[in-house]
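User: quick one, fold this
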Amino acid sequence: MSLIDKVDRELISALQEDGRLSLTQLGRRLRMSHVGVSRRLRRLIEEGVVKVQANLSHEALRMKLVAVLLEVEGRKQLDEVCRRFSECPRMVLFSTLIGGLNLLALMVAEDESVLESITTTCAIRESPGIKRTEIYLMGEVLTPKFLPLKLAKRRKRQAPCGRICSACSRFETMRCLGCPAVEGYRGPL
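Assistant:
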């Protein structure tokens, strides 16, 4: 049995076109009551099939995307790298891979100086257990146009990965905007 049926697909498709549609508007489109739409949507959310969220345009924010491919030594080190960087506000996609390079990090940077920082100084590639990395600056992103970029609700002294931006020479000399989750961050996120 499929987790989603024909009506669920129509509901999801309508929300993908315009995530701001009200339950009443969705009900009209699907020819059902807003209460029925609400139940379906709640079930899809509770089952982990759908997440309603606001995504941001990396183009409008003038963000650069970088793909970091890593080879991590063993499972223990892989788990530690994943734990350490899973809450990084620059992380758009974080996935294990099958093959020699066994981890993919798709990250955002506000400008070239931040790009340099996240690929050298405060880099995921500097973590213990990393055997090799490959870094690719991405060109035009064809799809999707909006990404789940994380905004810090409250800035802290220390970044989620454990770094302290105020102790970094690149941050002190204005060659890096800092981590979006840290007090003193100077960027748009």
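User: anything notable?
Assistant: The first strand starts at residue 64 and ends at 72.
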